[in-house]
């Protein structure tokens, strides 16, 4: 993108909004619930398995009591055998229950995250292009991958652990009270002591978690940009600089993570210390009761078992609590992304205007259009511009760099809406048309052809997926691309590499022209379409384009004389304004700017004789 520096600089713009609205755990659950709702049955089954296994774990305490009192203490081998059998049966039930719980809960985590990823991606592809100018793509990718992975862990593991621990806590507490009231009261005094640090530290961990996630996203987007521009990095021998800069990003992420893990480790250590301190105290009090004969050995064993269960439940909750805090950050970012409203409405997909599509004559008019890019609101890219391109006619846009030529094509495709004035197609404001219907009538050959990591078939067919092989080949021939495609190692099946890196600039351009030819649009938008061609291919492609332009409304951003001479009309732009319009000969007379540009063109064309008729 031409505005890379802006996009990088304005990336943090999105941050404050995200950071300000910190989501509570309950809000997070409400958001996630939307995605879990379709799987209520699985959730229910997982809940049943969860309660079942928690119940079994709790009854193991009773099994231990029987084992100690009836087996060990009573010295009866038969009773011991029975008690062991009971324990084994419980273990078997527990294994079955755990299998079901683990499978169902993990399934749910994976499923919900798969749906969430799809929802986020589906939303992203409908967003207006300016969104991606203020938000770095690396950061958006990190939301799709890192944040969703975190959520998957939360739903698939942590959440069920928390729930199980909560159940265990309540169950163990009830059984403790049932086993020995006095001791239970001792435990109850101890529990708040354990809970206190969790609450105190929880907030700090949460803040640090969010910072940690953010810095990881920064690392991802930094690497993404360098990989994308690897040749520039290497040709300017900036590898060492980039290594150091990346190293700094990674170290920052590590420092933030270190603070987070220090807090969490401290939290876990404190909880463990308090828990074991409490258990030792229990053993002291309970042991004395047992020695004094006020309590059976089995009761004490069961009591310690429940107290340990309770303690570990609290410890688990404390650990999971930290993770849930991290998950709120991740959920918040995903929800933010899902809630971004597209400035330009998405195509409804219903082609109510199919009729319009076929009947369209494709007369394009810009009426007093004022426009500045959302990322640069103070700078007008287009100022009070009015232009008419009659049906089937061609208009060449000329003007110095930055005059606003490409911007006009972007506005016509409705990637942005003008702040003032309107753009019409056959008299209808394009804002009143379905964006899909509007764009279906156009094909663009951009300055930098966009190719996808796939083969030639796929790339040419991109605008008309249903086209037959013959149609694709015909389009490639018309764009003078067939010959070079045939010479590729696998012909039309050749893979072009990421962004078509395995092709030359001129070859990419011819593929883009073939794609436009195949789409067979009513309106053709050519942005310097032949700039990357050598003189001979340009001549051929010009011929192909002339044929293609016949009967189609065409707007060409032209730097080449051949194009300018062929156009029905030429519009001269300067600093977003229309300064003159007419035929070549008239403009030479009336527009000094055009005259100057044309002189430069003529000088250029001297070197490319065959191009000028
Ligand atoms: N995405 C963008 N965000 C902000 N400003 C932009 C963006 N794209 C272009 N501009 C600015 O808008 C103005 C018009 O740019 P535009 O690309 O339309 O010029 P152009 O006439 O096509 O130039 P060139 O011949 O160099 O391609 C320039 O000042 C440019 O810096």
Automatic annotation (TrEMBL):
One term of GO molecular function: ATP hydrolysis activity
GO biological process per UniProt: oligopeptide export from mitochondrion
Keyword Transmembrane helix on entry: yes
Transmembrane segments: 42-60, 72-96, 150-177, 183-202, 266-285, 297-317
Protein origin, superkingdom: Bacteria
Localization (cell): Cell membrane
Membrane topology: Multi-pass membrane protein
Annotated coiled-coil segments of the chain: none
UniProtKB keywords: ATP-binding, Membrane, Nucleotide-binding, Transmembrane, Transmembrane helix
Xref: InterPro entries: AAA+_ATPase, ABC1_TM_dom, ABC1_TM_sf, ABC_MsbA_ATP-bd, ABC_transporter-like_ATP-bd, ABC_transporter-like_CS, P-loop_NTPase, Type_1_exporter
NCBIfam families membership: MsbA_rel (TIGR02204)
Similarity comment: family membership: Belongs to the ABC transporter superfamily. ABCB family. Multidrug resistance exporter (TC 3.A.1.201) subfamily.
Protein name (record): ATP-binding cassette, subfamily B
Organism: Microbulbifer donghaiensis
């Amino acid at each position: 993108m031409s505005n890379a520096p802006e996009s990088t600089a304005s990336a943090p713009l999105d941050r404050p909004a995200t950071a300000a609205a910190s989501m509570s755990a309950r809000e997070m659950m409400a958001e996630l619930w939307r995605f879990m709702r379709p799987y209520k049955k699985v959730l229910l089954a997982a809940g049943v398995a969860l309660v079942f296994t928690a119940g079994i774990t709790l009854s193991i305490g009773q099994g231990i009591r029987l084992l100690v009192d009836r087996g060990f203490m009573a010295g009866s081998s038969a009773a011991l055998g029975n008690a062991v059998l009971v324990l084994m049966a419980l273990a078997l039930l527990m294994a079955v229950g755990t299998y079901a719980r683990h499978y169902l809960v993990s399934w749910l985590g994976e499923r919900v995250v798969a749906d969430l990823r799809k929802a986020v991606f589906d939303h992203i592809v409908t967003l207006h292009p300016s969104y991606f100018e203020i938000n770095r793509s690396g950061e958006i990718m990190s939301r799709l991958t890192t944040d969703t992975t975190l959520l998957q862990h939360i739903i698939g593991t942590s959440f069920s652990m928390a729930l199980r621990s909560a159940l265990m806590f309540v169950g163990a507490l009830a059984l403790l009270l049932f086993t020995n009231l006095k001791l239970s009261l001792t435990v109850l005094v101890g529990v708040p002591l354990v809970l206190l640090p969790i609450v105190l530290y929880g907030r700090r961990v949460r803040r640090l978690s969010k910072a940690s996630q953010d810095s990881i996203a920064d690392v991802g987007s930094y690497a993404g940009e360098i990989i994308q521009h690897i040749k520039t990095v290497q040709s300017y021998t900036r590898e060492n600089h980039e290594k150091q800069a990346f190293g700094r990003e990674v170290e920052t992420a590590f420092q933030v993570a270190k603070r987070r893990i220090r807090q969490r480790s401290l939290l876990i250590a404190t909880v463990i210390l308090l828990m074991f301190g409490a258990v030792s105290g229990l053993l002291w009090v309970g042991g004395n009761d047992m020695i004094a004969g006020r309590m059976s050995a089995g009761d004490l064993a069961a009591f310690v078992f429940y107290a340990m269960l309770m303690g570990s439940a609290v410890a688990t909750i404390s650990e999971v609590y930290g993770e849930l805090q991290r998950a709120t950050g991740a959920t918040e970012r995903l929800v933010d992304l899902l809630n971004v409203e597209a400035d330009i409405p998405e195509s409804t997909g219903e082609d109510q205007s199919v009729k319009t599509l076929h009947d369209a004559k494709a007369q394009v008019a810009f009426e007093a259009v004022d426009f500045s890019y959302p990322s640069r609101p103070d700078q007008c890219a287009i100022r009070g511009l009015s232009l008419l391109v009659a049906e089937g006619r061609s208009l060449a846009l000329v003007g110095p760099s930055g005059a606003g030529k490409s911007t006009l094509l972007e506005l016509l495709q409705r990637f942005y809406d003008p702040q003032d004035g309107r753009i019409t197609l056959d008299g209808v404001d394009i804002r009143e048309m379905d964006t899909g219907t509007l764009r279906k009538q156009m094909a663009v050959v951009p300055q930098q052809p966009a190719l996808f990591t796939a083969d030639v078939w796929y790339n040419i067919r991109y605008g008309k997926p249903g086209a037959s092989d013959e149609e694709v080949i015909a389009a490639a021939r018309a764009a003078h691309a067939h010959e070079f495609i045939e010479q590729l190692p696998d012909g039309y099946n050749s893979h072009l590499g990421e962004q078509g890196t395995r092709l030359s600039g001129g070859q990419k351009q011819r593929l883009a022209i073939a794609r436009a030819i195949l789409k067979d649009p009513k309106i053709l938008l050519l942005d310097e379409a032949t700039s990357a061609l050598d003189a001979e291919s340009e001549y051929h492609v010009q011929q192909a384009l002339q044929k293609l332009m016949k009967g189609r409304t065409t707007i060409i951003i032209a730097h080449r004389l051949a194009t300018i001479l062929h156009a029905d009309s030429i519009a001269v732009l300067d600093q977003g304004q229309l300064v003159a319009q007419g035929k070549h000969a008239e403009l030479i007379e009336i527009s000094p700017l055009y005259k100057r540009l044309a002189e430069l063109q003529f000088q250029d064309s001297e070197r490319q004789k065959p191009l000028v008729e």
